[in-house]
Amino acid sequence: MRKTFLLFASVAAALGLASTMAVLAVWLAYPTPALAAGKFEGFRAACYASMPAKVADPIRHTHHVHEPSGALIFEDDQTYADLRNAGSNCQNEDRTEAMHDHSSSWSPQLKWDGVLLDQGRGGKYYNSAGVSDPRITEPFPLGMKMVASEAVGKVKWACGAVDDSREFTEHPPRSCPRDSAGISLLIRFGQCWDGKGTGSDGAHNLAEAVRGKCPASHKHQIPTVTWYPYYPIPADVLDDIDGRVESSTDNGWVLADDFMHADMQVGFDTTTLVRQCIVQPARFGDNSRRGMRPDYCDATGGNTSPDAPEAPGVLSANPADGATTGVDRDASVTVMFTEGMLGRSINDDTFRLYAGTYTDEELNPPGCPPDQPDCAPGAPPLPFGATVTGSGKKAILNPDGRLAEATNYTAVLEGTDTFDTFAVKDAAGNEMAADHIWHFETGAD
């Protein structure tokens, strides 16, 4: 006799109505579901469980097991600096800013019939859901700690993985089709901050917007974070299911805690968030590519933080952009910066010279991996040696050998707006916001 899979035992029994539930944070694949229908202009991250589950909680003392996601660190005393220095398993197929998200998120461990269920790939969205004026949104405070609870946030349920056809409801489904292969949730944090709590009081420093506006007690509007957790049913369990996946109060899904909740410590680089409000509108305007610009930026890019550090920039380059009067074949490529630069950040990954003329789009097509500086369609970059002056304001690229005769060249200084993981930095470690690309032509002997 084939056994029936018991889907939501302790979850439905312990939680009751969704309005009384605290929220959970593990993450799902990232098509925009029907509940969030309409043009999506936020950016998104795809993250995985980052390490084994353990008894830890960086916000509140706890005795139950949590399963962390995102940042490759999970300790009771972890700081914002720890998150920024740790790695992250967040990634994204459309090359958005996912790799800059070192946030740590955790939720109670979930088991079925005593077996820990592996988290599926999860989607996390940053946008302006729930607010009427995205122009006044502020970046997160550094290292902000957030708790989604029964008092603040949303929880909705659906059978199967998230896609545009899923209909989310307020309560867990009592049964799901066998081919749904799991259960999905929509979880949303409050988008209003009290301006005070960034640490251990993560349960009270957030509130939800009311009719699109933040209440006076929590007047600081921050990006809306929405997660889509997905719990896939193990394949070997599905093999033993005949018919629908039914819920039961006798067995099935079990939580390490007695209710579902979500916790998050923000590890996003504030400069990245601010740059997304400045650089992307300037480069793409109304034609910003989907997923590349948060929709909490205004049209002029004026939504900046007074605490945001100045990003370094390029004052001049020699040969200059468009030089066609016969650049010397023995010439070096020299760049003057607006401030002193971090010498070790200027290397063959961040300062590159190609034979040929390439545009930004050709160097950084959508399929270019984030761990690769460029994806030029022709030959690889020329080998060279780079030097930086004592003040750090001048960088010199010295090609290994003479440049080719009567040839067009493309020089590239890497910034972070193309969503790879390479960028030149100033002495304080601030990344240059945008790639600096220019072209010149050598003369004939």
From TrEMBL:
Q: Indicate the segments annotated as coiled coil, or none if absent.
A: none
Domain SbsA Ig-like residues, every copy: 310-442
Show the Pfam families listed in the entry: Big_5 (PF13205), DUF1996 (PF09362)
Does this UniProt record's set of keywords contain Lipoprotein? no
**Signal sequence coordinates:** 1-24
Asked if the record carries the keyword Signal, the reply is yes
What are the UniProt keywords, alphabetically? Signal
The source's superkingdom equals Bacteria
Annotated DUF1996 domain residues: 58-257
- What InterPro entries does UniProt report for this protein, alphabetically? Cu-Rt/internalin_Ig-like, DUF1996, SbsA_Ig
Q: What is this protein called?
A: SbsA Ig-like domain-containing protein
